[in-house]
């Protein structure tokens, strides 16, 4: 893999940097964390600007509505938007980073035409209906059932930790369509409209005070069979595609943000005297090295995914495992640098630290990632 920037890539960076310098000062003030209608409008407004400028779905295939940019251009985009302090993907997270790429890879031509353009334009928001109560990290133990009734599935059950359900238009939903099959089979992947009769959303307040997640209750919700992505009972395979994107590329932009945060911490430590502590300096230095290595791993993963039609490979689990722990340690060090100021819930640092606690659970726990690495990379025997 050649990591040297070509003249074309350098030109791409310069044009993107100039565009960001022009549009970012024009953005409205960011809404408060709990103003979800406001956050939806803000996030989708930014997405619309990206779309109109030709930067939406930069790395998506052209026939899926993307720009077909190279992996390097995609990484340059992430670097430059983070460096400039551009808005994060926000409420459009699931649509752009999970559901959209999955539909681009596994959906029919009709499904791609229906669902992908609104995601790229910033017209529709998706949420993720994977996790269920009492299932823990065992995603395949899901119990939400879908019974075929003519040209629709009748769905009954509940989901939990459903990201952005409060403001979502669609849900990438896993359901059990064959209860007699082994648990990793008999599953289907559906696109469910969140305004369908029988859908009830109850927000969950997190440790950081946000209602980013929700419980979703499904009472005989009718979902057209045409909304199934992939074959009936083949949903586990489709889900692996979704999880590959979730673990392989969805956190990439955050690595850039963590590297910037690390620089801010070092500057703060020098200003408040904490820099004189050699132990703290060593921790900051080690984290600097770890995030640098994570960025190199990211480059490798994104480049390798080109050989599999853009679907990230098993390296995503290595990245997710290392990144989630490094992020937690970053904010532990931040608490040391900031001292008492890090305890105030009014401080963004505090909210970020509380949020970091979830990273070794979200998108598959560290234990799940360790099992994947052990079995599928190292070739160790499967556990019972």
Describe it for me?
- The chain has 384 residues and is an alpha+beta fold.
- The protein has 11 helices and 8 strands.
- The chain has helices spanning 7-23, 36-53, 71-83, 93-106, 109-121, 235-248, 252-272, 278-305, 315-338, 348-356, 366-377; strands spanning 126-129, 145-149, 152-159, 170-176, 187-193, 199-204, 213-224, 228-229.
- The strands form 2 sheets. It has a 4-stranded mixed beta sheet with strand order 1-4-5-8.
- Strand 6 (199-204) and strand 7 form a beta hairpin.
- Helix 7 (252-272) runs parallel beside helix 9 (315-338) and helix 9 packs antiparallel against helix 11 (366-377).
- The longest helix has 28 residues, at 278-305.
- It is globular and about 70 Å long.
- The two termini are 38 Å apart.
- The model has no long low-confidence stretch (mean pLDDT 87).
């Amino acid at each position: 893999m050649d990591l040297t920037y070509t003249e074309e890539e350098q030109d791409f960076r310069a044009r993107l940097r100039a565009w960001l310098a022009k549009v970012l000062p024009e953005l409205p003030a960011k809404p408060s964390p709990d103003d979800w209608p406001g956050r939806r409008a803000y996030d989708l407004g930014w997405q619309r600007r990206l779309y109109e400028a030709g930067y939406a779905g930069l790395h998506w295939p052209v026939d899926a509505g993307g720009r077909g940019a190279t992996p390097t251009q995609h990484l340059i985009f992430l670097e430059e938007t983070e460096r400039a302090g551009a808005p994060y993907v926000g409420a459009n997270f699931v649509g752009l980073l999970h559901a959209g790429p999955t539909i681009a890879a596994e959906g029919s031509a009709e499904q791609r035409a229906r669902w992908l353009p609104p995601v790229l334009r910033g017209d529709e928001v998706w949420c993720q209906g994977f996790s269920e109560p009492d299932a823990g990290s065992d995603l395949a133990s899901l119990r939400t059932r879908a019974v075929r009734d003519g040209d629709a599935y009748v769905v009954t059950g509940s989901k939990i930790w459903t990201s952005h359900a409060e403001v979502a238009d669609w849900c990438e939903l896993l359901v059990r369509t064959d209860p007699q099959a082994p648990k990793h089979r008999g599953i289907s992947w559906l696109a469910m409209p969140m305004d369908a009769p029988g859908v009830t959303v109850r927000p969950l307040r997190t440790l950081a005070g946000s209602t980013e997640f929700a419980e979703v209750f499904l009472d005989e919700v009718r979902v057209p069979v045409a909304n199934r992505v992939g074959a009936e009972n083949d949903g586990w395979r489709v889900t692996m595609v979704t999880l590959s994107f979730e673990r392989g590329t969805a956190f990439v932009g955050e690595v850039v943000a963590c590297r910037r945060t690390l620089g801010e911490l070092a500057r703060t430590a020098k200003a408040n005297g904490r820099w004189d502590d050699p132990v703290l300096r060593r921790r900051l230095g080690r984290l600097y090295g770890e995030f640098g290595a994570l960025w190199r791993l990211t480059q490798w993963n994104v480049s390798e995914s080109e050989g599999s039609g853009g679907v990230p490979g098993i390296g995503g689990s290595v990245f997710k495992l290392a990144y989630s722990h490094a992020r937690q340690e970053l904010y532990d060090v931040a608490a040391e640098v900031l001292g008492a100021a890090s305890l105030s819930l009014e401080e963004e640092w505090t909210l970020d630290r509380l949020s970091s606690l979830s990273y070794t659970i979200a998108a598959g726990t560290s234990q799940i990632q360790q099992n994947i690495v052990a079995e599928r990379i190292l070739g160790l025997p499967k556990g019972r």
